[in-house]
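Weekly sync notes, structure subgroup
Attendees: PM, AL, DS (notes)

Item 1: joint prediction request from the bench team. They want all three components modeled as one assembly rather than separately. Inputs as received:
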Amino acid sequence: MEKSELKQILQALVFVADEPLTLNQLREVFPDEDVALLKDSMEEMIREFNEFHKGMEIREIASGYRISTRPEHHEWVRRYLKTKPSAKLSLAALETLAVIAYKQPVTFPEILEIRGIKSSTAVKTLLDKKLIETRGRKKVVGRPILYGTSTDFLVHFGLKDLAELPTLEEFEELLHAETGSVSEITPRGFNGDEQDSAEPK
Amino acid sequence: MEKSELKQILQALVFVADEPLTLNQLREVFPDEDVALLKDSMEEMIREFNEFHKGMEIREIASGYRISTRPEHHEWVRRYLKTKPSAKLSLAALETLAVIAYKQPVTFPEILEIRGIKSSTAVKTLLDKKLIETRGRKKVVGRPILYGTSTDFLVHFGLKDLAELPTLEEFEELLHAETGSVSEITPRGFNGDEQDSAEPK
Amino acid sequence: MEEQGPAAPMESGTAFQDETAEETPEVLKVKLDIFEGPLDLLLHLIRKEEIDIYDIPIARITERYLEYLQMMQDLNINVAGEWLVMASTLILIKSRMLLPPDPEAPGTPEEEDPRMPLVQQLLEHQKFKNAAQMLYERETIELAVWENPKTEFREEEEELISATVFDLIKSFHAVVQRFQDKIVLEVEHDTVTLEQKLLELRSLLALQPTLYFSSFFERKISKLHLIVTFLALLEMVRLREILVYQDRIHSDIKIVKVA
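Output from the run, pasted for the record:
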């Protein structure tokens, strides 16, 4: 292999490795290449890379080769990571949100009953993220707080109103397998035919 | 800030971002910098980056910037990661996705009409993979759900935005070329009517 | 299956055949899978028979199409409604072609051609097939590139998902399923007695002198519970412990403790 091509591939491998890339691993990937060449190409690639790309750097640490950002930019990297919208939900929070969205207004004990799992952390997370809000109290014993979805919920999910949520029926329609699907075929006894028709004319 | 420093930081941010880095996010990270300068620096950095080193590349995808390996090295990367090629979408899913991509927002019955066959399994797969998403309801009888493509769709197919898709008309030209080659006796359209009717009916 | 006709559609001319040609046991399945519906089959027949799409010999195509349907039935494939609808469309076009043109009908000869709507539909379908091919090619490229798998900054979080509307309904569906399973279990182990229910209702009324009938149904409880609740209420009316009335017809039934 040309050294220039090898250097490109080495760069790609350092990039995709989720732990430092070792020479032993490289030997496995390139069984036909000389180890000295591998090491030499790697070092040359790193020299060139670090000279030119000042936003990242490749370093040889005890366990292998590793690519990372440079310490002098960490302040900016941290700043960027903070801007990321915290729109992601845990599975528990998602499930609780789903129950609230479809059963609103709904109380804490009712959510517990439907989910069969305690949801206090999930409800708190959803309140923190402003996806749900309180809707007064239910006029039953204990006067539990009612929860419903917020305007932010609609914005976040790109909904004009709650009526845009798919219904259970619509979801179940999707679950139905199509009729006439090929999986219903019974292949018995057709091998002969198959070979016939595969013959060139 | 010096443009050269800005370019380094932009490179670091593209590297750490786990989804395409957008200009909006950059505006948040650099509230004091001019947006035009940000965009210009980013583009300059990408040009230089892609020109100089060929082991990775930065591309504009889903209205953001993303760094990845290059397709030509996939065999080596796969060899190192010991991964099998990922499962591709089925033909049914791809065709349904094509209809949704070009006709969005589009309802289930409309997809059925174009494809001439029920597509619920395909739609469910596409929803599961988050390649499509719901887009409210159409204001017709039954208020059917509208579907459109998602940001993940752009990422999955390496598109900067929907405008990057070829137009449907371009596929039509392809078709004419194709039918032309199949029926070579009658190269085009209605001129060949007489000749064709000579075929057994 | 010995005759030529029905077997013919299985010789596919499409590009997708070759990929799977060696895998003998699955070949038949894959080949049938090529036809994503009646339009797909028609396009295939048109290509195979080397037909000009703008001048389809409708009788011949209809015949081939029906042969194919017959084969599907022979193979015990459940032929969906769409395939039959197309069959009747073809037969209808065929019969219209046999009618002499109406000299008084307005419009140009092309517009009169009963095949045109179908041709338009086929052309449209072909466009989307080509678009799907384009997506397939793009996907192949994108599946050959990798993103940065890690950064030292990415925190180890519990699995988080960017939820969509579809995630909401999927999640709710799962909860409802789980809940329904639970009800079945509860019913099996349910041992509520009338006495227990009477005690429960009395203590409830001690706290809250007015109850609404609907409140018993808000919580999803087992049928047995509902029946026993109902019996307990009747018993309490009989014992004159409670009054039951409505403000208006069809309004919620009020249950009031007798002082």
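Discussion: Strands of chain A lie at 56-61, 64-69, 89-90, 106-107, 132-137, 145-149.
Action: AL to compare against the crosslinking data before next sync.
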